[in-house]
Design brief:
Number of helices of chain B: 17
Distance between the termini of chain B: 51 Å
Oligomer: heterodimer
Number of helices of chain A: 5
CATH class of the largest domain in chain B: Alpha Beta
Strand content of chain A: 25-35%
Number of domains of chain B: 3
Shape of chain B: globular
Number of strands of chain A: 6
Helix content of chain B: 25-40%
Largest sheet of chain A: 6 strands, mixed
CATH architecture of the largest domain in chain B: 3-Layer(aba) Sandwich
Strand content of chain B: 15-25%
């Protein structure tokens, strides 16, 4: 059991991200769809946590609390997946390398269990750090 | 009695499905049912009916709470903010119709705005690449009727464009594609075995961020040159097999998405994907198409293309249009603190910009025009809810293949609510008075 694992983080759309976004981003359903990180079963094992445990994801650009779930479109060895949204954007690489596009995919992150912490809704996840 | 409205256009993604059916109440005030739409499109139509929806603008009080204001007060505040700014960022423009984009451009010209649309965090890389190397394109209708091979590179239409495969790219039977999906071969390139990859004949599980190498390897394979045993996590035998399949297709199309535009190398990934397409046209007919996200982000690029000559990152602060992504792009402008106010319409940068940019927005005067309560409204001083385009007001939108489609109004907006265009016209009128033009 490791206290912390290192992963390469990518983000993007999921169907539930789209549905809950259109249903109202202030609602809990949006948090449940996007305030998650999809991990390989081996990574869950390494962390010694169950599907559904909250974790702290950190990169050199920030940190965020999300719920770890078993990869729905996996396995993807070495990768972690957070659906696009304010949770992912707390940790992704904002560098545009002079061409305008932040680096939303391919961000080195660490993941550690945080069962005591709460996953905030999309408005609070911004307010927390403003 | 209820009424059935057919041929309704869905204002969610760039697929812009135009075969929806909507059931509305007899008085046209209530939307009861949506047929043929994907889960996301249906939710978009139905959420317009939410009972807790905001119907009047709200202004932030000193203590952070909100108070209701009239549309006239909202327009006055917006006009004053924009007129006073030296370099306002005017961002969004993708979830609205072309008519509103045109009025927005007039406002931006008057106030020397920085116009940018959601391509800046989406297919901006693509637009840069297309300017560098051109693009062999086609329409989705041609794909439906002709394509016997499609490649989905770094995109997951099963989730992001749910009806794309059933309407155009994989399942439909067309004029020369009578067998439907049985007559089409599909390759998916993605670091994850996605739900789209499950439908593929071949899934290339590329190592994340190594698309450029894999695309280069395909170009090598087309020329029958030697490859190393493994490229970007894919064995060379598979690369040769895919290359051969692509060369032997009658008509093919590469669809690509955020997997290549967001990963490092960015526009260069697209450069070489276009070169791959160009190579293939030595052997047979191939096209390449970006999977555009917002239903009218393509329209924003088209409108600004004909007005200013550039599809995004348009800097009007010097009285003429300049274009320099990396300098005149929203995130760079925000992070370098080069703008002094933010106007958002038809997008949600609060949710979809890196947090560091959102933090900068919070420090600036900010107006958000959006039917929903969104993370952007957290950093806004004024939130102006408007009617949903494509649901409560019609207007022109461009599909991902740059085909313009007129969206329809299917239901009345709540009484007294303005549309994007009406609100922008109020602001434009007021700015003209302030500037004395």
């Amino acid at each position: 059991m490791a206290e912390k694992i290192e992963l390469n983080l990518i983000s993007g759309r999921t169907i539930m991200q789209g549905v809950t976004m259109e249903g109202g981003k202030e609602k809990p359903a949006y948090r449940d769809a996007c305030g998650i990180i999809e991990l390989n079963p081996e990574d869950l094992k390494k962390l010694g946590i169950w599907h559904g445990t909250n974790v702290r994801v950190a990169s050199q650009y920030g940190w965020v609390i999300v719920k770890a779930i078993k990869a729905t479109q996996g396995p993807h060895p070495g990768l972690g997946w957070i659906p696009m949204g304010p949770w992912a954007n707390r940790v992704i690489d904002p560098n545009t390398y002079s061409m305008g596009m932040p680096t939303f995919k391919g961000v080195p992150v660490t993941v550690e269990p945080a069962p005591e912490e709460k996953v905030l809704d999309s408005l609070a996840v911004l307010e927390e750090m403003l | 009695m209820t009424k059935l409205i057919t041929d309704v256009v869905c204002p969610f993604c760039g697929t812009l499905c135009d075969d929806l059916e909507v059931v509305v109440s007899d008085d046209g005030k209530e939307l009861l049912e949506v047929n043929n739409a994907c889960a996301i499109g249906a939710e978009k139509f139905l959420h317009s009916q939410a009972k807790d929806r905001l119907t009047r603008p709200r202004m932030r009080n000193e203590d952070g709470s909100w108070r209701e204001v009239s549309y006239d007060e909202a327009a006055e505040f917006t006009a004053q903010m924009l007129a006073k700014s030296k370099k306002p960022l005017m961002y969004g423009w993708s979830s609205t119709n072309c008519e509103s984009q045109v009025v927005g451009s007039h406002v931006a010209e008057l106030v020397g705005g920085q116009l940018d649309n959601t391509a800046t965090v989406c297919h901006g890389s693509t637009l840069i690449a297309v300017q560098d190397v051109g693009v062999p394109s086609c329409t989705l209708g041609e794909i439906k009727n002709r394509a016997d091979m499609v490649v989905f590179w770094g995109c997951n239409p099963a989730h992001a464009h749910p009806r794309h495969m059933s309407r155009y790219s994989l399942f439909p039977r067309g004029f020369f594609t009578a067998k439907g999906h049985r007559g089409r071969s599909v390759v998916v390139v993605d670091p994850r075995p996605t739900d789209s990859a499950n439908l593929a004949d071949i899934h290339l599980q590329v190592e994340q961020g190594r698309d450029y190498e894999l695309l280069s390897a395909l170009r090598v394979a087309f020329r029958n040159e030697q490859l190393p045993d493994v490229v970007a996590g894919v064995p060379k035998e598979t690369i040769y097999e895919v290359a051969e399949k692509m060369k032997n297709a009658r008509f093919g199309c590469i669809f690509f998405g955020m997997g290549v535009t967001h990963s490092l190398s960015k526009n260069h990934n697209i450069d070489i994907a276009i070169q791959v397409t160009r190579d293939l046209n030595e052997f047979t007919k191939w096209s390449i198409m970006p999977m555009r996200g917002h239903y009218n982000v393509t329209g924003a690029g088209e409108v600004w293309g004909w007005q200013f000559g550039f599809p995004f990152c348009v800097d009007l602060s010097r009285g003429f249009a300049r274009y320099n992504p990396g300098e005149s792009s929203s995130n760079d402008l925000l992070m370098r603190e080069e703008v002094d106010s933010v106007f958002v319409l038809g997008s949600d940068p609060g949710a979809h910009f890196p947090f560091s940019s959102v933090k900068k927005m919070n420090a600036l005067p900010c107006v958000v025009v959006d039917p929903h309560i969104t993370p952007s409204t957290v950093v806004a001083d004024l939130h102006v809810p408007v009617a949903f385009v494509g649901v409560e007001v019609g207007g022109c939108a461009y599909r991902m293949d740059s085909v313009p489609i007129e969206t329809h109004k299917v239901v009345d907006a709540p009484e007294g609510m303005l549309t994007d265009e009406e609100f922008l016209k109020l602001v434009l009128g007021r700015i003209k008075e302030i500037k004395g033009v």
